[in-house]
Write a structure and sequence with these properties.
By secondary structure, this protein is an alpha/beta fold. Helix 2 runs parallel beside helix 4 and helix 3 packs across helix 4. The termini are far apart. About 3% of the residues have low confidence.
């Protein structure tokens, strides 16, 4: 009986997502704390400060928000992110989001987050043969790294409409990105800071950012470029 109820819920949510493709708009969904203001870029945003695992009602609201968005930003909150990807609703939501060309921006905020990384998140993408970057450099002997945009992205969405902006990082990825990933930003030690994976045939984009400093107010130009890329079709 319980399985039948769960199946009905899943079918309902899938129908909702199928319909949502009609009205998916220039919206941003954020999970976690952030300091960016997205309305000034011409988009609507909704933030979920959900640290603990989602209840069914909370998960429904979160999935609905993502189904209407073109950009989904994960800004911490490992436990709730794990519960999202552990649920059938969450996985169905993410499938549809990516199928519609959505951009998933994953911020790796700290070594603590890495030690408690949401296993269900990595399992979900592994099921799609996408190996999310793993490993964390931390600041090491230097408090901050100076970063730069790689040559491959100097004439891309990462520099449009803002061509230059302050770039510092309190972390980097210690490992070489897996197959299919490209590096947008590197630290001055040569390690990747921000990486991107484009799913073939327009099936969405994943961006992984290890720079804690790239999420502060000084990084507003970067986020404007990101919003233009995700929400307004600047997919150069």
């Amino acid at each position: 009986m319980k399985e039948k109820i769960e199946m009905k819920k899943l079918l309902f949510i899938l129908c909702m997502f199928a319909m949502s493709g009609v009205f998916a708009s220039n919206r941003v969904t954020v999970l976690g704390n952030h300091v960016q203001t997205f309305s000034k870029y011409g988009v609507k945003s909704q933030t979920f400060y959900q640290k603990n695992a989602f209840t069914d009602a909370e998960l429904d609201k979160f999935c609905y928000a993502i189904s209407r968005s073109k950009l989904f930003i994960s800004a911490g909150y490992s436990t709730s992110l794990n519960s999202f990807f552990a649920s059938a609703k969450g996985k169905a939501t993410m499938d549809k989001f990516l199928d519609n060309g959505g951009v998933f921006y994953l911020w790796i905020p700290s070594w603590t987050w890495v030690k408690n990384a949401p296993k269900e998140l990595y399992k979900y993408f592994a099921g799609k043969n996408i190996a999310l970057p793993a490993g964390y450099g931390g600041a090491g002997a230097k408090k901050f790294f100076q970063c730069k945009i790689t040559d491959e992205f100097t004439n891309s969405w990462a520099t449009s409409p803002n061509a230059s902006y302050p770039l510092t990082s309190a972390g980097c990825n210690n490992l070489k990105p897996a197959k299919g990933w490209k590096t947008i930003l590197t630290a001055d030690n040569g390690k990747p800071v921000c990486m991107i994976f484009t799913i073939p045939e327009g099936k969405g984009t994943i961006i992984v950012n290890y720079s804690a400093m790239l999420f502060d107010k000084k990084a507003a130009p970067f986020f404007e470029n990101l919003v233009k890329f995700a929400c307004f079709g600047n997919k150069k």
